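Fold it.
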Amino acid sequence: MSAAADYGYIFDVAQLAHVELLTPDLERSLWFFRDLLGMEEVARTNGAVYLRAFDERYLTSLKLTPSEKPGLGHAAWRARSPRALERRVQAIEATGLGQGWIDGDVGHGPAYRFTTPEGHQMEIFWEVEWYEAPGELQSRLPNRPQKRPGRGVPVRRLDHINLFAKDVKRCGEFMMNTLGFQLREYIEARSGGYRGVWLSVSPMVHEIAFMYDEAGPGGRLHHVCYWYGYPHQLWEVGDLFRENRIHIELGPAKHGITQAMPLYVYEPGGNRIELFGDVGYLIFEPDWRPIRWTEDHIERAAQEGGLPWLG
């Protein structure tokens, strides 16, 4: 991986489609996403609950699955076409990290399962179920898939995932070389390795990031992020969290990397959730030059007063 990497111009992955979170307290996790973040429950099957945010085109973006421990069940990517899916499956199989096909799940058709080099579970598919709002949930705006909910402070859409890794470089290169992600920003360690990488397949700064796992074995979830689009809503939802005894880890604040405005909380099942007040900036340059950060940058930003510019 280098700042001048040739990405090969692979345009086969379109977006982050959904995420499965494991939770030891399904009903409390459901309450958090439904009643505080305003998400809509769309299905229940085999003990799992499926939800959506009101500005999403597909049926569901979040699956909550009962489990002894919190964590990532899987992250799912949508291909740009049936042929694009075939190409990415062939590329994944060549790495030895493919696991084979599943028939599908609520909201999507056949999917190919695979892992990152550190075991994060993922899948990729083409066929999806587009959301059709029932009468009582239809918006007066033709370009809004669902009426804005009147409960909590409703999130608008799934934004990104952030994963822990021991070998950040290897995981980043897998996403780039196998799936066509582009490197947007990165933290270079004093040792010469990488402390973090931010990658995307769209004009967003990232749909996925990998952070060095100092305390664990890698292969873990750092957080899942949902997007508001309006910074003031971070203060509104923060107030709601305080009233309901939801632990706020950090924020509202300002990231240096990505320049986004975040708030971090832990949902009752134990998963870290980030909420974005905005996305920072968008990338339209086809020959983007990845932004290099050093550990000195991060430490200096943390020590400065005023608005915290967080890595």
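The CA atoms of residues 88 and 95 lie 11 Å apart.
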